[in-house]
Design a protein that fits this description.
Shape: elongated
Number of domains: 3
CATH architecture of the largest domain: Up-down Bundle
Number of helices: 12
CATH superfamily of the largest domain: Talin, central domain
Number of strands: 0
Structural class: mainly alpha
Largest sheet: none
Length: 376
């Protein structure tokens, strides 16, 4: 409906121009308006029938009808102007009709926006989470370089409870997202907005907690930030699954995907909670880092095997270069096994996580674009 509505508006604007420069071309443009409106009317009936609440459906239907009347007058004036190309009164009438059509298109779009509140909120929330993930990547770079320090004289204990409380709040948001997909657009919008707000708060408190650990232990800082990054990535997938499942039947395949995404989300939040508790327990830091890395690799494998198309390009040479990271990580793992030092194990976990993730991502990109080149 958005596509056909915008097409009608663009054609109406072009008809305004052609009424002055080339009235003989108005016939083809009028035909295009008729075709686009026919498609819009078909989709409009479906949208009005499925919209929630019913008032939104009625609004969509009435505004599509009003646009239809405007299109009729526009087409009629286009025909009249073709008969009398020099008639200034008819030209003004056509221009007024074209402007009215453009205004009615905006009313249709606003009605669609009102009936699509939850989906739009999911799109906005997904964009916000994407920005958070990028920010966490930057924070990991600072931590790895040994430049992530707290501004005040504080300890990790000062942030621990706040992290745990916010993480548990995110679990509640997860439940709201899943139930919101089967509810109305209003509840879905509330759930999406709440989850975006909570993940923002969670990343902020985790970054403060990581900074309080001090730059003399960068590997533990990276483990902690990676843990909340995993949560953010899982939330992005959950929001996407929620958007796809919104309004669908309980036995629709998208609902099963939504439940799977919710399960991954809860798993990653649980992993974050375990990591937070292990930060102050030196004896379990290495084991916790390895467990988190194993779970991360499992999820990277699931994405690797999915049909989702990558959004960037690369070269086979880049993939070959990425495999070297696996060789280095393997050597580090052997050395950490021999030393049994916690810092070596944590370093191995962090290095392995990045090496495998980079390799799988690059391999998927290379194979996808090579396949596109082979299959037209």
């Amino acid at each position: 409906m958005v596509k056909h509505s915008k097409a009608i508006a663009l054609t109406a604007q072009e008809m305004m121009t052609k009424s002055v420069t080339s009235p003989d071309e108005l016939g083809a443009l009028a035909s295009q308006v008729t075709v686009d409106y026919s498609q819009l009317a078909v989709q409009g009936r479906l949208a009005a029938h499925t919209a929630e609440p019913e008032e939104i459906g009625f609004q969509i239907k009435s505004r599509v009808q009003e646009l239809g009347h405007g299109c009729i007058f526009l087409v009629q004036n286009a025909g009249a102007l073709q008969i009398s190309p020099s008639d200034s009164f008819t030209k003004r009438e056509l221009i007024d009709c074209a402007r009215a059509v453009t205004e009615k298109v905006s009313l249709v779009l606003s009605a669609l926006q009102a009936g699509n509140k939850g989906t739009q909120a999911c799109i906005t929330a997904a964009s916000a989470v994407s920005g958070i993930i990028a920010d966490l990547d930057t924070t990991i770079m600072f931590a790895s370089a040994g430049t992530l320090n707290a501004e005040n004289d504080e300890s990790f204990a000062d942030h621990r409870e706040n992290i745990l409380k916010t993480a548990k709040a995110l679990v509640e948001d997860t439940k709201m997202l899943v139930s919101g997909a089967a509810s109305g657009q209003d509840k879905l919008a509330q759930a999406a907005q709440s989850s975006a707000k909570t993940i923002t708060q969670l990343t902020d408190v985790v970054k403060l907690g990581a900074a309080s650990i001090g730059s003399d232990d960068p590997e533990t800082q990276v483990v902690l930030i990676n843990a909340v990054k995993d949560v953010a990535k899982a939330l992005a997938e959950l929001i996407s699954a929620t958007k796809c499942a919104a309004g669908k039947a309980a036995d629709d395949p998208s609902m099963y995907q939504l439940k799977g995404a919710a399960k991954v989300m809860v798993t990653n939040v649980t992993s974050l909670l375990k990591t937070v508790k292990a930060v102050e327990d030196e004896a379990t830091r290495g084991t916790r880092a390895l467990e988190a890395t194993i779970e991360c690799i499992k999820q990277e494998m699931a994405f690797f095997q999915s049909k989702d198309a990558p959004n960037k390009t690369t070269t086979p040479e880049e993939f070959i270069r990425m495999t070297k990271g696996i060789t280095i990580a393997t050597a580090k793992a052997v050395a950490a096994g021999n030393s049994a030092h916690q810092e070596d194990i944590i370093h191995t976990a962090n290095l392995s996580r990045k090496a495998v993730s980079d390799m799988l991502t690059t391999c998927k990109v290379v194979s996808h674009f090579n396949m596109q080149a082979i299959v037209p």
